[in-house]
């Protein structure tokens, strides 16, 4: 049996001109996770990451916390969907940047609706693949792990969409449940899948063992 650790990236820059950059807090979250892994004596036999900047910066923070340089396999199928394109497909009007609480709520209401429409095929967001192709990008990474790393410990650094898609694939959840899993994922959360060459099974979901201390609870974020 092998163990696959799916890690969501640290807090990015929601509302900024470039979301695809970790905030200072996102960097600290990533380093703390690496420190936690090191304290547990955890070592990874293989590392896979999406190719977005927030994935690579999160991986860099984990490596700093663990104290290892290491190589990784880049896997573009683990990249996140374009949330702005998903929303534009159902709401073409210009939206306010989600810098206020109400704007953020509106953003996520529309994102839920847009994801549902993309998943059921009633919309095709500009510049994005059809949903089945997005799913294949994620499941092909899972297949690669099962085929090549049996009995080993593997780290995958990615985003909420691919992680919820992986969990939905393993559990056979309907689209609505997969969307809710996606929107509940916290930054640098850890989801564990046990695997053998034939199957995967969910071990833990969306945990933050490195943020359990009372003085760190204010550093828990979702975007």
From TrEMBL:
Organism lineage: Bacteria, Pseudomonadati, Pseudomonadota, Betaproteobacteria, Burkholderiales
Source taxon at top rank: Bacteria
Statement: the UniProt record of this protein carries the keyword RNA-binding: no
Organism the protein comes from: Ramlibacter algicola
InterPro entries linked: His_Pase_superF_clade-1, His_PPase_superfam, Mito_Ser/Thr_phosphatase
Name this protein carries in UniProt: Histidine phosphatase family protein
Keyword list, A-Z: Hydrolase
Pfam family, one: His_Phos_1
Single Gene Ontology MF annotation: hydrolase activity
